[in-house]
Amino acid sequence: MLESSLTNNIKKKLKKEVGGVWIKVHGGPRQRKGLPDLHGTVEGLSIWIEIKVPGNKPTKLQEETMKEINEVGKALAFYTTSTEDAVNRVKEYIERRNNDGTIR
Length: 104
What we know:
Blueprint: H1 3-17, E1 21-24, E2 38-42, E3 45-51, H2 60-72, E4 75-80, H3 83-100
Parallel strand pairs: 3-4
Antiparallel strand pairs: 1-2, 2-3
Helix pairs in contact: 1-3
């Protein structure tokens, strides 16, 4: 499977199962390098997902960017290699927020 196909599958499934707005981030010469592939906003939360085909991993710069996003609060950044993993992680994040009102 191509990364673009996996990204499209994740985007469609997230829109269907959790709602929100999901935008594919396209890299360019004037854009900050290392940004994750998909950005979503759900219930006031910012969610960034780096998508890789199985066997591939994020670059060091991508890992550093995700760490920086996670440290901000009310934001989640992670990488995934499957649609199911991405949807489950987003659902768990939203559920934790709804259960106790805090972000972990």
